[in-house]
Amino acid sequence: MVNKLVQLLSKLTAKTQEILPDVLLFDFTIVNACAVGTNDEWVMVDAGLSNSEAFILETTLKRFSRCPAAIILTHGHFDHVGSLERLAEYWDVPIYAHPLEMPYLSGKKDYPQADASTDEGLVAKMSPWFPHTAINLGFRLTPLPEDGSVPGIKGWRWIHTPGHTEGHISLFRESDRTLIAGDAFTTTKQESLLSALAGREKIKGPPAYMTMDWERARNSVAQLKGLNPALVIPSHGKPMGGRELEDHLAYLAENFEEVAVPRKEAEEDMPEL
Fold first, then answer.
1. How many separate helices (H) and strands (E) can be counted in the chain?
2. Residues whose CB falls within 8 Å of the CB of residue 18, separated by 6 or more in sequence, listed in order
3. 2-269 CATH pick, 3.30.70.1560, 3.40.50.1110, 3.40.50.2300, 3.60.15.10
4. What is the pLDDT of residues 63-97, one digit of tens each?
5. CA dihedral 260, 185, 140, 108 (to 10 degrees)
């Protein structure tokens, strides 16, 4: 029931936004995905929910004259891989992920069940019903190149940003300092349904109810801040750039425990007196 509600909201609100001439955002309200590149060379970054396939195909068929070179995964949570297998089969393309994410994508290991106690928001309370079992992508699943390059598009590199998941990655283009953050941090309070629906802009940490390692998540935010991004495209929330991004990301990095870490996690990490 919960998953069907999430899918319905996504389907009713699906839209696209051209963020840059070569970056198209798929906004499913609950989650974002991207088509990155030009007509001659492009990739799909993440694959939305299980009912996102038709909208993605319809949009990309109009925008591009050829199939993507690959699908790149920031990580394997259900809202990023929902239409993945059908899109990969239709396009006949490889799926790239970090090696540490591959057990969750090859049927070997389930993600932990989401933790509803991390926040009082409705999304957090619904999260234990979100799918978390492993999927098996078979022969299409391929590890990302060790040199940091992104197969299918030039000028971008992938960065290991663990914490939300073990093999989480973000994508960065040095030439214009564009960052596709994945779930390393968000620009909305994803735990709250009202915030997610309204797209209220507020830099937060990764979605708390499915984050596996808060210390690594903090380090990943610090790493991304060090890139000095001019524009961020998150998987949850609206794109943000300029001085607003600079100030908000600096605040998140400096106050990560207060802003992002659930209170019970922070209390467990406190030294005993």
1. 11, 12
2. 24, 25
3. 3.60.15.10
4. 999 999 999 999 999 999 999 999 999 999 999 99
5. -10
Any idea which residue has 């943000």 for tokens?
A: 240
**DSSP secondary structure, 84-140, as one string:** HHHHHHHHT--EEE-GGGHHHHBTS-PPPPP-GGG-SSHHHHHGGGS--S--B-GGG
How far apart, in whole angstroms, are the C-alpha atoms of residue 150 and residue 157?
5
10 Å Cβ neighbour count for 69? Answer: 19
Structure tokens at 154: 């030039």
d(CA 246, CA 229): 8
Tokens of 147: 């040199």
Residue 272 has pLDDT above 50, yes or no: no
Tokens representing residue 127 in the block: 């999260």
